[in-house]
Specification:
heterodimer, A: 355 residues, alpha+beta, Immunoglobulin-like, 4 helices, 15% helix, 37% strand, extended, disordered N terminus, B: 224 residues, mainly beta, four-stranded antiparallel β-sheet, 2 helices
Chain lengths: 355, 224
């Protein structure tokens, strides 16, 4: 028989049944007890299913396979984790490896691997964490094709940041960087729904993870304040001088742009690009592709470059002028030097750019 | 095989010619062509650049522009088999290789004026010439250019004032002219050599329709 003290009229703090009492000054306040919600967000549901599946997986593998994981766990013995010294059991090692493998898009691993390569820290130059941009720059590239960048984040909703430092949640896995850049802006919005606010704290955890082993051990985990300037060099956000398909209107009056990847590099100004165009109507002089606004590094510049015809007279080489206008006029203009624009062309390469 | 080079961490220039034998088993099994760069080469990876394939197709040496880039310390070149039946072919690399990911301001590209000395034979349609301490970039298309039908095989020399005299490079010239032959794949090509500031080239015998207006070239070349 459970004896419940009467809390309603006594000097008492605590819970009994579904009632919680708390004393503030000389008053006692009663409230209904907090119930854990059965509701969960889709990402939470995904993670819980993934975890449950992985746990069940250990019971489904053979005894020999379980022994393999036990042997591997013995190799680890007591090891140091970010949360202190830990002894890892065979089921835990199996679950850990396969949970992270799943996040990396790898299938469940029944046989214990020969070795478990630890994750390692990420070296980078700078990062912006602002409401508009979450971008890490000059990330040291891995030469191991199995390694992926594993990233967890969490916004801190209170000043007690240290208490939620271990509450980061999986954000994304990137097999490689974009020329040293990792742009997490879209991934963050997709995961957390709302953009960061200035002054807010955010926790970022990242590591180079061997996707075959799934062994998260060493990693960077830092708490940053959301601000306009970059965290290390105090620099304003400056976009790369790049034009991609998402910045152009691909279906124009006379042609369709099927591929557009253009970027400026210094020295003085050199582009590297690949652009594919397909003509819709017979129009020999040139083609215009509108864009929706480009970084300020573009104003009005042009390059002369090789183009390769991929229709009719296949592989014919043409000389194209690619002119990017980002002033009063917002378009990319293509002019063929011999005034014979072909049905389907691709222009690519690295060329000087002139104003 | 030796390539002439200029190297820095964010810009490299390579000049050279590779002969490819399409009957070799290693070639037939390859999905792209690769050349090992020296272990201490300054750039391990580059954005997309170009190379020019010059085939051994009879008379016109048809060819095209190929994708070319640096990856894992290898020079990688797109493989096209359209002219394999004509035997060994050549790939000319006279290109710049850059890295990406730059965030910052740019300065304008300085150009230098050139003057054609033999204007009776040659005339620029458009051109841009960039002269740096270690290399040059020259792109030109012509409104007046020798054509086989009226001027024969040559040799012809484009005499220039202002072009660096220490550039020695062999380049492909796109001399397609205005007429395409039935079943033609690629452009009509010939090769020429810049030496002592002038470009010299000639046409093969029987190359009717080759050259003339709209001929052009586009290359980077290392100086010295």
């Amino acid at each position: 028989m459970k004896l419940l003290p009467s809390i309603a009229f006594n000097d008492f703090s605590g819970s009994a049944g579904n009632v919680t009492a708390r004393k503030v000054g000389d008053k006692t306040y009663l409230s209904s007890r907090t119930q854990h919600s059965k509701k969960k967000t889709p990402p939470q549901a995904t993670v819980r299913c993934r975890f449950a599946d992985t746990i069940r997986g250990f019971s489904r593998i053979t005894e020999a396979q379980r022994q393999g994981w036990a042997s591997l766990a013995k190799v680890f013995g007591i090891y140091y984790s970010p949360f202190g010294y830990t002894y890892i059991s065979a089921p835990n090692l199996f679950v850990m490896a396969n949970t992270y493998r799943k996040m990396c898009g790898k299938p469940l691993l029944a046989d214990a691997p020969v070795e478990m390569k630890r994750s390692r820290n990420v070296i980078y130059d700078d990062l912006w964490i602002s409401p508009e941009h979450i971008v890490i720059t000059k990330v040291e590239q891995s030469e191991d094709p199995n390694e992926v960048l594993f990233i967890e984040m969490s916004p801190a909703f209170s000043r007690g940041v240290s208490e939620c430092a271990n509450k980061t949640v999986f954000l994304t896995v990137r097999p490689t960087t974009d020329w040293g850049d990792i742009d997490l802006t879209d991934a963050y919005l997709e995961r957390f729904g709302t953009p960061l606010k200035y002054g807010q704290k955010v926790i970022l955890k990242l590591c180079w993870l061997d996707s075959e082993c799934g062994f998260v051990s060493r990693y960077n985990r830092d708490v940053f304040s959301v601000r306009e300037l970059s965290l290390y060099h105090d620099a304003l956000y400056y976009p790369r001088a790049r034009v991609t398909m998402d910045r152009i209107v691909p279906v124009a009056q006379h042609c369709v742009c099927e591929e557009f990847d253009y970027e400026l590099s210094p020295g003085s100004k050199i582009n590297s690009n690949v652009i594919a165009l397909r003509q819709l109507t017979f129009h020999l002089l040139g083609e215009d592709i509108p864009h929706t606004g480009l970084p300020g590094a573009f104003y009005d510049e042009f390059s002369y470059q090789y183009a390769r015809v991929t229709s009719s007279t296949q592989y014919l080489i043409q000389s194209f002028m690619v002119r990017i206008q980002n002033n009063g006029t917002k378009r990319v203009r293509f002019i063929c030097s011999d005034m014979s624009f072909r049905t389907h062309i691709v222009t690519f390469g690295t060329y000087y750019v002139f104003n | 095989m030796t390539l002439k080079d200029y190297q820095s961490s964010d810009l490299c220039i390579l000049n050279g010619k590779i002969t490819v034998d399409p009957t070799q088993s290693a070639y037939m099994g390859a999905i792209r062509l690769e050349l090992d760069l020296p272990a201490d080469f300054a750039m391990a990876r580059s954005a997309l650049s170009t190379a020019i394939l010059v085939s051994n197709a009879p008379v016109y040496r048809y060819g095209t522009v190929l994708k070319c880039w640096i990856e894992n310390n290898k020079l990688c070149i797109e493989k096209l088999t359209a002219w394999d039946t004509h035997g060994s072919y050549e790939i000319y690399i006279n290109s710049a290789f850059v890295t990406r990911g730059y965030r910052g301001a740019f300065s304008q590209t300085p150009t230098k004026a050139l003057t054609i000395l033999n204007t009776g034979v040659f005339g620029f349609n458009q051109y841009r010439y960039v002269e740096k301490d270690d290399f040059v970039f020259f792109v030109a298309s012509f409104i007046k250019f020798p054509d086989y039908n009226t001027q024969g095989q040559g040799p012809f020399t484009l005499e220039l004032s202002g072009f660096a005299s220490d550039v020695l490079v062999e380049i492909p010239l796109i001399v397609q002219g205005t007429v395409t032959n039935p079943g033609q794949k690629g452009s009509m090509l010939t090769t020429g050599t810049f030496e002592n500031g002038n470009l010299t080239f000639s046409y093969p015998a029987g190359a009717n329709g080759i050259g003339g207006e709209y001929s052009f070239f586009n290359f980077f070349a290392v100086r010295g």
